[in-house]
Amino acid sequence: METVTASPEETEALAASLARGLRAGDVVAVAGELGAGKTTFVRGAARALGVTGPVSSPTFTIGHRYEAPTPVAHLDLYRLAGIDPAEWGDLEPYFEGTVAFVEWPEHAGDWLPRPRASVTLSHVDETHRRVAITGEDDPGV
Ligand code: ADP
Ligand code: MG
C-alpha cells in the first residue's frame, strides 16, 4: 500500500496500524532519506506495541531494546559501512524475541533477516510524507 500522511501524528497512527499485525521475530525495514520520518514511524509502532518511554534514534549505540509485552528493538544502521560476521554477532541479539525496526536497512546488505514488512518514506513537502509499505504477506494495513 502507499499513502501520504499530513503530519507526524498521521505517520505514527499508520505505523500503529501496521504494528498491531506484528509478533515476536518480525523485522520491519524502515527506509528513507534523513528527516523522512523513519524514527517517527518507529515511535508510533513502538507505542502501539506497549513501549511507554521515549523513543528516539539510537545515537551512541547501533540499537535500543525496549521492554514491552513483546520486546521492541530499534536499530539505526546509518553509520554502518558494511557488516562482517563479528558485527553481525553484535546485532543478532536485537532480533531475538523482538519485533525489530531497522532504519537504513540497506546498510545491512544480505545480513538482515527477511523483513515481514518494508516501509519506505519520502518527503512530499514540509508536513507531508509519502509512505509505501510492502509485505512478505499482508501486513494488515
Ligand atoms: P528520520 O528518522 O527519517 O531521519 P525523523 O522521524 O527523525 O526522520 O524526523 C522526521 C521529521 O519530520 C520530524 O521533525 C517530524 O516532526 C517531521 N515531519 C513533518 N511531517 C511529517 C510527517 N507527515 N510524517 C513524519 N514526520 C514528519
Ligand atoms: Mg532516524
Annotation keywords:
141 residues; binds magnesium ion; 7 strands; globular; 3 helices; 7-stranded mixed β-sheet
Question: Could you explain how this protein is built, in words?
Answer:
The chain is α/β, with parallel strands linked by helices. The protein has helices at 8-19, 38-48, 85-91; strands spanning 2-5, 27-31, 63-66, 72-76, 99-103, 117-123, 129-135. Strands 1-7-6-2-5-4-3 form a seven-stranded mixed β-sheet. Helix 1 crosses helix 2. The model has no long low-confidence stretch (mean pLDDT 93). Magnesium ion binds at residues 38-39, 57, 76, 103.
Describe the structure in brief.
The chain has helices at residues 8-19, 38-48, 85-91, and strands at 2-5, 27-31, 63-66, 72-76, 99-103, 117-123, 129-135. The chain is of the alpha/beta class.
